[in-house]
Specification:
single chain; 367 residues; alpha/beta; Aminopeptidase; Alpha-Beta Plaits; seven-stranded mixed sheet; four-stranded antiparallel sheet; 28% strand; elongated
Length: 367
C-alpha cells in the first residue's frame, strides 16, 4: 500500500477512537500494533500510556514527538472525547515519517516519542522522567495550523508558542439576606474587583500577554441570598516565560490585597503551567531545509508566533541542551483548533510526514 494512503487510514482509525489524557490505552495499543507490523523496535510503560520507538544505528539520537490524547468536550450536545486539536493527525504524520525513513540509510538513530497527556500539560514530563529524550541532541514536533496562520500547502519551520498557566480560587465569606448585606461577607464583590484589577496590569506594549476570568460559580436557586462562597478561574498567558512569571506575581499580590479589603479568605491554586517555546535556530534551520527539499520554495512559510501553548516545550526547559523546533503544517484548518467540529484538508497529512522525514534524515547526518 502507498504510504500516503496508509497515513490516511491510520488517521481515520485514531480519529474514530479518541481517548482523553492519561487514558490513551487503546491508542497506545494501536500504535504498538502498527510498529510491530512494521518490524520497528519499541517499548511501552507499565505505569503510563505512550510508546517510544527507534530506528537506525549509531551514537547520534534525533527525536520526534507526537502527542496522542484527545480533548473532553461537548460535541453536538453530548460530552465525549474528541480529537479537535489534531493529535490524531500528529500521530499519523509521525508514523508516516517513520514509514518513509524505515528503508533509508540514516546517519544515526531516530527516536519516535508518542506522548500522552499533552492537553493536561504534564505528559512531556512523564516521558522525560522515563528516559525518552536521554541522549537526544535534536527534537522535533509537528502540529497542524489553523488557516488564519498558514494555508494548506505551506509549512513553517517553527512555532513560537506562548506560555500559559491557570488559576483556580475559592472565596470564603459568609451568606447574607439580600435585604441585609451588612450581615454577611459577599463572595462576588471581590471577584468583580479582581476582574477589574487584572485589566490594570500593564507591561511593555511590545510584550504579548493576557489575563481573563474564565469561570465564576456562586449562589444557588434562592435569588434573595447574597452568596458568601464562590469559586473562580483565570486564564493567564504571555509570549515569554519571564513575563508570565511577572504577571503571576502581580495577580497573586492583587488577589491577596482584595481579599483583605473585602474581609474574605481567597485560597489560590495555580495549575497546568505550560512554558513558552525556546526554539533552537539550528533545529529551525534544519526544518527549513527539510521543507524546501520536500515541498519546495512555494511551500515554505515563515516561523509562526501564536498565543497558544504546548507542553512540547517542557523538553527544552528540563533539558536545555536539546535543540528543538516544532514544525507547523498548513491544512486549511477551521473553524479553529479545539472547535468541536474542527476539520482540515487531509492531504496535509502526507505533506507533514514527508517534511518530517526529510528533516529527521538531515538532522541524523549532521557532522
Amino acid at each position: 500500500m502507498l504510504i500516503n494512503k496508509q497515513i490516511g487510514e491510520w488517521f481515520d482509525h485514531f480519529h474514530k477512537h479518541p481517548e482523553i489524557s492519561w487514558k490513551e490505552v487503546e491508542t497506545t495499543k494501536k500504535i504498538a500494533e502498527i510498529l510491530t507490523e512494521m518490524n520497528v523496535k519499541h517499548h511501552t510503560f507499565d505505569d503510563v500510556t505512550g510508546v517510544v520507538a527507534e530506528i537506525g544505528e549509531g551514537d547520534r539520537i534525533i527525536a520526534v514527538r507526537a502527542d496522542i490524547d484527545a480533548l473532553w468536550q461537548e460535541v453536538d450536545g453530548v460530552f465525549r472525547a474528541n480529537h479537535s486539536c489534531g493529535h490524531d493527525a500528529n500521530i499519523s504524520m509521525v508514523i508516516g515519517a517513520l514509514a518513509y525513513l524505515k528503508e533509508q540509510e540514516l546517519g544515526g538513530r531516530i527516536r519516535f516519542i508518542f506522548q500522552p497527556a499533552e492537553e493536561k500539560g504534564n505528559g512531556a514530563i512523564s516521558m522525560i522522567e522515563r528516559g525518552a529524550v536521554d541522549g537526544v541532541s535534536h527534537l522535533f514536533g509537528v502540529h497542524l495550523r489553523p488557516k488564519e496562520e498558514i494555508p494548506f500547502g505551506k509549512v513553517s519551520p517553527a512555532i513560537h508558542h506562548g506560555a500559559a498557566i491557570f488559576l483556580e480560587a475559592k472565596v470564603s465569606g459568609e451568606d447574607a439576606h439580600g435585604a441585609r448585606p451588612q450581615q454577611g461577607r459577599n463572595a462576588l464583590d471581590p471577584i468583580f474587583a479582581i476582574a477589574s484589577f487584572i485589566k490594570t496590569i500593564h507591561f511593555s506594549p511590545y510584550e504579548a500577554y493576557s489575563a481573563k476570568l474564565t469561570k465564576i460559580q456562586a449562589g444557588g436557586e434562592s435569588l434573595n441570598i447574597i452568596p458568601g462562597n464562590a469559586v473562580f478561574a483565570i486564564d493567564v498567558r504571555a509570549q515569554s516565560n519571564s513575563v508570565l512569571k511577572a504577571l503571576r506575581e502581580r495577580i497573586d499580590t492583587g488577589i491577596q490585597t482584595i481579599a483583605d479589603l473585602h474581609n474574605v479568605k481567597i485560597e489560590v491554586n495555580w495549575s497546568d503551567y505550560t512554558p513558552a517555546a525556546e526554539v533552537s535556530e539550528e533545529a529551525s534551520a534544519l526544518a527549513r531545509d527539510g521543507i524546501l527539499e520536500a515541498v519546495g520554495e512555494e511551500g515554505y512559510a515563515p516561523a509562526i508566533i501564536t498565543s497558544g501553548s504546548d507542553d512540547f516545550h517542557f523538553y527544552t526547559i528540563h533539558r536545555p541542551e536539546i535543540k528543538a523546533a516544532m514544525i507547523g503544517v498548513g491544512a486549511d484548518l477551521g473553524p479553529g483548533l479545539h472547535h468541536p467540529n474542527m476539520t482540515f484538508n487531509h492531504d496535509a497529512l502526507d505533506v507533514g510526514a514527508r517534511v518530517l522525514a526529510t528533516t529527521l534524515a538531515k538532522a541524523s547526518c549532521l557532522d
